[in-house]
Amino acid sequence: MRLLTHNLLACHARACTTTSNNFPLIFKDVQVELIQAEPNPDFIKGFLPKIEWNALVKTARSLGQDVLPEQSPDFSKPLNDEALLNSLHHILLEIHIMEGQMICPNCSHIYQIRSGIPNMLLAEHEINK
Amino acid sequence: MIPTPSLSHLTKEDYRKVYEPAEDTFALLDALEEDAERITSQKVNRAPDSSGKGKLCVEIGSGSGCVSAFVSQILGSSDAYYICTDINPEANRCTDLTGKENKVTLNAIRTSLLESLTGRLENKVDLLLFNPPYVPTEEEEERMAQAEQSIQGSWAGGNTGTRLVDTIIDQGLVETLLSPGGSFYLVAIKQNDPEAIVARLNQRGLDSKVVLARRAGREHLHIIRSIKPTGEDDHQ
Ligand SMILES: [Zn+2]
User: Which keywords belong to this entry (chain B) (predicted)?
Assistant: First the structure.
């Protein structure tokens, strides 16, 4: 699971659907694999407005990646900072979480990641119907 | 002509656990290929440049991963991001492998429909794809099949064959998650009453129609397409 995917996932347990504290999920005991991806600055530029910046910065730091600025880039202007684009490419697309857990900051539910695939299923009683 | 993705890595054993691409899959691929230019040329919402790159494609119930791998040939494997959900772990595994086989990363997530994604994806999905379980079955049989999280769930669709489609539409997920100008492609058969599905999607402010209808053996396949208006003058 790449960090871009992680940036799109929130806890959907019954207790968490009405809070904003269900995101980002917190990594625990993760095994990371770095897999090179073809650089594509236009993809990064186009996709950035869909990213939750603060969550990305926080998650990257939890994995020892400190290069992203606290302040999000201005998405209304074309992003031409090459160093930042390279960092984003690496952080969003090349870091793969292969094994480990993601913990909801609100309800502490643990979601497992196995063979690079997150399991977001909840038991029937945990889902808000 | 866009080639069908390579699935030579999947075995008979895999197809005991995961739906094997069939006529319904190929009808969806044909409809997508027909719309390739429209899908590619759509701008990405809020992106300051208009390269059209950086799209988000989400497939619900990706099974073998064949459809998303096909779309990656239309949108470009590194120009868009591909999320593939499935409740069946064997489908997650096959989707991941099909991506690797076809030189694209298909980001597999084990979940039911779009659960865990809906909060973050509002107005962000440029292409939403769903080839649902559409075979009318006894309600009880359908519930058991979905609960088993296995291959039976890939075809058992409940009374009119549309239980999961109803969930997606009635929860308002299509119009909520699509980006302005984004599109939703859905596979249905005659027994699902495609015209009624189109009418329901249109009631939700989407521009919908049947873009392909074709007989394949006993099935009368329909591909429904819904486009979310951009708010600009884009009526067709
Ligand atoms: Zn939670």
Answer: Methyltransferase, Transferase
What's the pLDDT tens digit per position in A46-82?
999 999 999 999 999 999 999 999 999 988 888 889 9
Compare CB distances from A43 to B53, B115, B117 and report the shortest one's residue.
Answer: B53
Q: B191-230: b or e for each residue (b if 16 or more CB lie within 10 Å)?
A: ebbbeebbebbeebebebebebeeeeeebebbbbbbbbee
Domains for chain B: give ranges and CATH numbers. Answer: 23-39+52-227 (3.40.50.150)
- Report yes or no: A12 and B119 within 8 Å, Cβ to Cβ: yes
- CATH number assigned to the domain comprising residue A83: 2.20.25.10
Q: Which of B58, B77, B95, B116 to mutate to test the interface with A (most CBs of A within 10 A)?
A: B116
Q: Does B128 touch chain A (CB under 8 A)?
A: no
Read off the DSSP letter of residue A68. S
Indicate the pTM of the whole model.
0.96
Instruction: Please identify every residue whose CB atom is under 5 Å from ligand 1, which is an ion.
Output: A 11, 13, 16, 22, 104, 106-107, 109
- B71: which 2 tokens? 């779309």
B34–chain A Cβ distance below 8 A for any pair:
no
In this predicted structure, the answer to whether residue A98 has a pLDDT above a threshold of 70 is yes
Structural domain total, chain A:
1
User: How many Å lie between the centroid of ligand 1 and the Cα of residue A28?
Assistant: 15
Residue B119 to residue A122, Cβ atoms within 8 A: no
